[in-house]
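Dissemination and training. As part of the outreach component of the grant, students in the summer workshop were shown how a complex can be specified as a set of sequence lines and then modelled as a single object. The example used during the hands-on session is reproduced here so that future cohorts can follow it. Participants entered these lines:
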Amino acid sequence: MLTLYSYWRSSAAYRVRIALNLKGLAYRQVPVHLVKDGGQQHASDYLALNPQGLVPLLVDEEGGGVHISQSLAILEYLDEVFPVPALLPVEPPQRALVRALALHIACDVHPLNNLRVLQYLSGELGVDDEAKNAWYLHWVRNGLAAVEQGLAVFGGRLSLGQRPGYLEACLIPQLYNARRFACDLSAYPRLLDMEARCQDLEAFQQAAPEVQPDAQ
Amino acid sequence: MLTLYSYWRSSAAYRVRIALNLKGLAYRQVPVHLVKDGGQQHASDYLALNPQGLVPLLVDEEGGGVHISQSLAILEYLDEVFPVPALLPVEPPQRALVRALALHIACDVHPLNNLRVLQYLSGELGVDDEAKNAWYLHWVRNGLAAVEQGLAVFGGRLSLGQRPGYLEACLIPQLYNARRFACDLSAYPRLLDMEARCQDLEAFQQAAPEVQPDAQ
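and obtained this result:
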């Protein structure tokens, strides 16, 4: 049994839902509300499961009950333990290119723009909404422009040729997040094309924030 | 031939130097100065190599000339192409635990505190030095406290038992960075113990910022 601690709007949790769906793995979802009760991820019962105090967290009972935090660690684990269908290409250079693009999103775009950081900007630093929005757009545009260039190697195909995988599981949630902040995406035609193909697939449709049990 | 585009003080480049040394791989180092000339990582000749405009970048001539950005993508590549000695444990649950701790540093601590973000806080947002320092310490303490708890599973050993690997390659540069910002580390005895063992090893000594050819 796989259990995913998740929040409907978390980009990182969304990545894992896509990956689980792409592999056709059944899982139980436990919602962790990132805002209610001062953030349920800070509650002692959740911190006992995941001291990092973030979502997602995957618990694999068959895997000795291992508790895995960090969305990309979960994607790597799923690809090792449930290898078919694969999320990553076969050859190391291609795997590296996919991971580098996914990590650019996961390390250099998303963490600067997630809820806890935006809360710190407003709360601790007294940054007004306009400057906070400019901060958001600065990092997301910067990051997406680099990913757009990086996608050139795929020549209009998905990261696994006809199939999406690791890269798309990271990209689609980032685009969803960018739209929430009214970021104009028209400068990134390769991203939009990749997104459109993914959105046709059930694995992505069923992972979307709005259709999660805890969506509001 | 392996070529590493690096900056002596970059935590992410430092991770890769450690990994290359742990594997005993020879490499040529090309310095990219992150401050001089308005940041050489923004120059068009560097962006042509790495559109992400960040260090490190690894070029592997034997691997078809692949250009790999993102330190963790490089570590994964090195472990796939030069598997002995390994950087990651063998079993998926243990690999996942190591990756989750490394990713917590690489995604949720370091990107908030690297040079470009601190420059944005001062320059664009007009944040004063005291508040900028408080920002730094907030994220680093938060992150290191979680890693400290996460290390409990190793029972005082290194991530590969008697040997360091992927986890230590991420942790030691983060501790170096924290010291630069005068962060008191005494609350993290497991981190300090792990660091002390690593600092005894040539692979770490020779990766240290101060002994790099571009150190100032």
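The domain at 92-204 of chain A is CATH 1.20.1050.10 (Glutathione S-transferase Yfyf (Class Pi); Chain A, domain 2). Students were then asked to discuss how this feature might be tested experimentally.
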